[in-house]
Amino acid sequence: MSVLVYTENTNGSFKKSVYEVVSYAKAIADSLNTSLTAISIGDVEQSALTALGNYGASRVLNVSSDQLKQFVNQAYASVIAAAADQIGADLIVLSNSFSGKGLAPRVAAKVEAGLADGAVELPDVSSDNITVKKAAFSGKAFAITELTSAKKVIALNPNSFELRETGGNTTVETFQPDIPGNDLAAIIQDIVRTTDKVTLPDAEIVVSAGRGLKGPENWGMIEELADVLGAATACSKPVSDAGWRPHSEHVGQTGIAVSPNLYIAIGISGAIQHLAGVSASKTIVVINKDPEAPFFKVADYGIVGDAFDVVPRLTAAIKAYKG
Ligand code: FAD
Fold this sequence. Notes:
Elements: E1 2-6, H1 16-31, E2 36-41, H2 46-51, E3 59-63, H3 73-87, E4 89-95, H4 98-111, E5 114-119, E6 130-136, E7 141-147, E8 152-156, E9 171-174, E10 205-209, H5 220-229, E11 232-235, H6 237-241, E12 262-266, H7 272-275, E13 283-288, E14 301-304, H8 307-322
Parallel strand pairs: 1-2, 1-4, 2-3, 3-9, 4-8, 5-8, 10-11, 10-12, 12-13, 13-14
Antiparallel strand pairs: 6-7
Helix pairs in contact: 3-4, 5-8
């Protein structure tokens, strides 16, 4: 038995969530007294592949093909399933990222595995049935899932596991499985980025604002604060519904679920539907002029004050601190 981890790349490099999922898979492999193999699909620099050894992958299968330069769900799932078959992996681990959410069930179906997606901590591997704690109901609850099938797939929520450097080495091998023609029926020709800023699901810091901002013309101070922090911007649902901000920034039950290290909520009341998408944040800072705003109940730090007064002063203080 061995463990296979899929290392998703973004424009040829690995993000922090990849090292998290490799660290996580390595910890599971250690508990199972087995080795960890990583699979990378697409054009990734040799040095980045080699660096996976530092997080515990003793072997890297590298799939580099013109047909797979862009992410194609079905084809990537087939390749991962073929790699699992090749090395006899009973457990496949990947990140529950945007693409991971599409891949995990497809991979599980191909290898006939049980799936636990949204894992938030190391599973219990003391019996043949692996037991996984996972987020449920948009992060409002946890579910304990027992995987009873022979093969298993676990998708780890980003920002749920710390990086663990092992100082190990890895060997990088070329892997060229056959890709069924049907898997390449839809090909992504190009990806056009609408922003150069850090994207919400990947952000370690999120600056988010709500209806308390009064109108779209006031978002300059939100963007300025986000810029000095290297943060992504987000908003509540009514803000995107009103067209003040793009829908891609809408966070919550019906929007994106985020789990950054720091979530700064400005002029947002903290309705349950909003909290559903942000409760996995490590630290929550709330700025609201109403001391009774529900958001304060889940805040680690709260500032009762007018956003138009507090935010510019906070930005200036951070700028001064950074020099
Ligand atoms: P408000 O509730 O209007 O709150 C504005 C806040 O700003 C208040 O707390 C006020 O005290 C504060 N404020 C005002 N002026 C200032 C100032 N000058 N300085 C500082 N603070 C100030 N909402 C989401 O966000 N995401 C979702 O995914 C989502 N899904 C939903 C799904 C369903 C089925 C339903 C029914 C609702 C959903 N909602 C969602 C809407 C949700 O219930 C709330 O209505 C919404 O989150 C409120 O947005 P808000 O906090 O920006 O606005």
